[in-house]
Amino acid sequence: MESQTYAIVDLETTGHSSQQGDRIIQIAIVLMKDWKVISKYTSFVNPGKKIPYFIQDLTHITDQEVQDALPFEEQAQQIYELLQDTVFVAHNTDFDLPFLQAEFKRAGLPKWFGKHMDTVELSKILFPTAFSFKLQDISMELGIRLAHAHRADDDALATAYLLKACWEELLSLPLVTIEQLHERSFHLKSDLSQLFLDAIHIKRKQPNDSDGHLYYRDIALKQSIRVEKTDHKNLAYPSSFQEKEKLFEAAFNNFEVRPDQFKMMDTVWQALVTKQEIMTEASTGIGKTLAYLIPAIIFAKKNHCSVGISTYTSHLLDQLLQEELPKAEAILKTNVTTAVVKGMEHYVDLDRICDLLLVKDDSYDENFTKMQLIVWLQGTDTGDLSEITLSGGGQYLVDKIRRTQTTSVTHHKNAFDFYLKALSKCKDADLVITNHAMVLADLGREEPILKHLNGWILDEGHQFLQAATLRDEKIFSYTHWKYLFGQIGSTETHTIEHSFYLSMQQEDKIPLRQLMALESQFRDMTQSFDKEIDRLLHHLPIQNGKHRQNKQSFLLSNIELAQPFGSEFSRKLTHWLNLAESITTTYLQYPDELSLKQQTNLADWQYQLRELKICLAEWNSIFLRHQEKDTEWLEIDMRSMPGSLHIFKRPVQVEDSITDVLQEFRNKTGIIWTSGTLTVPNDRRFIAKQLGLSEDVPLYQFQAPKSYYDGASLYIVDDMPDIKKVTQTAYIESVADAIVQTVLATEGRCFVLFTAQDMLRKTVELIQETGTLDDYMLFAQGVSSGSRMRLLKMFQRFEHSVLFGTNSFWEGVDVPGDALAAVIVVRLPFSSPEEPFFKARAERITKQGLNSFYKLSLPEAILRFKQGFGRLIRSSQDKGVFIVLDRRIETKSYGQEFIDALPDIPVKKVSLEHMVFELEDWYNKH
């Protein structure tokens, strides 16, 4: 099929549905043979209707460009003939092919018949670690030129080269991997099996297919190359300003000196050398990461030891490895050996995936995910499952193959373990890079993993609090429990329907009475669970009347239950698990007598039992073990009971946990806490106290040059209504009007930050109802589908767009350059005083005789405010406005503290009308 002709097609249309009257506005066909482009066809198409503004924004195809083009009916015959005797290829054939078929039918032509290949499906299999499979993103990642995305001619050509890149990648895989893909390819949605077969024929003619791979249970794995740690005793720390400047200028063109970056380097170096614990607050723009990386690398190499670097978000970890570490190596002219270590649940259990691959009768999602895993395994160095970009249905299968304590014991000889491999690399690394959760997890280990480190950099140090809190958090989710029961049996009939249990009934190793007891107790257990949940819901003090909220929360201590809740269900689940495990043990004694199918079913049965045991421990912790240091609350949406039921148990204070984990290192190694937000104006040690750090731990602050923020201004809109003096509806109308006017003045590119999801949703709905921003793309957290990162990517893709976000958008989102013109703060980011976890923390402070507003509520709000501003200016070339709609920043005595927390930028208190006039003038100039 290598001489097969491929017709790579792309359409631009007025919308998604030809049935609803949408039409083609541009079509492109690239013909490829022997992996070379042999001809191109491209044409505008007159749709006979106006092109929607957002389609013009997306495609840059205007009504004027298509007005003189032929309608599709007059081009249909030529297009139809071009596709004859070809394989139809598109990036998402589920859209292009049906749309084209419908247009052929409308033009009076017969349905086109032939094979089709989807490059989305193909690239997801062959490039399973790609960040995104949108054509623009995957093209950029593979170095394929795509000058104008969403223009059919450029998109079709890029898709053609993507198809070729997929073919080349396929040929680079080991033969055994391609054979496994071919075996599973017949269950795909597009016709890819012939492509895999062609690759097999070519690979079988090649002399040596084992280059760079080893084989474990018929699975190809990448042969890792051990990098020896290099000892640079002659690598000297650049003590003087001039020495640092010389190193940086040699590595970077047009390097701009930032004095505080050099000062921070010296501070970190001294802390490592003198084994001191310090805190460093570094504002955006000083180059914080390099300021700690360079002294850490030199210290590790000079002393032939390892320095640990811990972060909170995977985004920062990736940025450190992919962007900042290569810069540090260029500056120091040395290679740095690194080891990245995460909790064991991040790694694949290789034996588990090998067992699951023995099963062939999978659903589409399971089969597709297995194909991705097969390709990923032959290329991964780490075995870290977070490397894979999964489709929605693949997550459950991946959860089954995570490494756990109980899955570390294997009956296979010469077992291959990525987790142990990661740990072994730590001893030879200059830098051990991990996350806060892993550092805290060392608390529970008999033999700590990170004890050998000779220095610590704790980046995003303020987030260590969140990591410590979430480490000890317990969550009960009703839907998760019902899902687990459903994996074992039927939740309607309360009978066990797991394939392993059903197969046991045909065996004579298990007495019938034990199987009947297992079934009977499963019924009792699930019925007891339903009874307990009904009892809990019955006793909720639900609000009634017009002020009732759909989403409500209740402290468990305020729910009056007649008897201890949960003990009867706990007893029944414990009894059932004991019986299930005793039966399972019987089968484990005869592994050689089980078929491959039975072995796989047994492994899945054991996985389900492990999941239930974990949930039982959480159930007991929440309902049967009450401690004063914890707060417990219930959240539910009254519109979907009991499915929305969640119960949380979270520690109110975590200082002791943090102290315990770091005590081993204090006075023995340097410990550097660093973050962009560690202080507030009237409480420099706000975060330090929450971390349990003593007054002896010094705190240093480093600022970017004032010129870094030359492009920023703060606007305080002083004619917004007081939320306490108007109805919520009236306030939302004013907020919506301010947002609309700002967006129109800046032509989009705005973040709008809320503190409550309900107000966000109502504001977005009002704007959509009025139609005032119909020409803009609106993306709203909790309203638009997709993750935070997906919404951010979509926002950046459109010139005329607005992103509405709540809590998680206040921090950790980078939009450098012209993609962001304004950040609008709707309300100062105070926590709701009725939010259960915040309420429990506030009560703890009040009991100490302190004012919880000034000691907790205000400092936390100021920190979030600083983080919100940090979204705006991410480089010295950025320009933008920070707009506050909340009048409290002007009318309340504490308002000045919010302003003081920001860099020294112009502050303008103006009316909405005056601000819009200035924004229009500013935008036109820039």
CATH fold-level topology of the largest domain? Rossmann fold
Number of domains: 5
Taking pLDDT < 50 over at least 5 consecutive residues as the criterion, the unreliable ranges are: none
Number of helices: 34
Give the C-alpha Rg.
30 Å
Label the overall shape.
globular
Report the helical percentage: 40-55%
E-strand count: 27
| CATH architectural arrangement of the largest domain | 3-Layer(aba) Sandwich
Largest sheet: 7 strands, parallel
Which CATH top level class of the largest domain fits? Alpha Beta
Can you say what the CATH homologous superfamily of the largest domain is? Answer: P-loop containing nucleotide triphosphate hydrolases
Quick check: average pLDDT? Answer: 88
Separation, N- and C-terminal Cα atoms: 54 Å
* Widest β-sheet, arrangement of strands: 10-11-9-12-19-8-20
- Backbone structural class: alpha/beta
Beta content comes to 5-15%
Structural account:
The protein has a 7-stranded parallel β-sheet with strand order 10-11-9-12-19-8-20, with helices on both faces. It has a 7-stranded parallel β-sheet with strand order 23-24-22-25-26-21-27, with helices on both faces. It has 34 helices and 27 strands. Helix 8 runs antiparallel to helix 9 (193-204) and helix 8 (175-184) runs antiparallel to helix 15 (364-377). The two termini are 54 Å apart. By secondary structure, it is α/β, with parallel strands linked by helices. The model has no long low-confidence stretch (mean pLDDT 88). The protein has 5 domains: 5-213, Nucleotidyltransferase, domain 5 (2-Layer Sandwich); 241-337 and 656-702; 339-424, no CATH class; 474-651; 707-925, 3-Layer(aba) Sandwich (Rossmann fold), CATH 3.40.50.
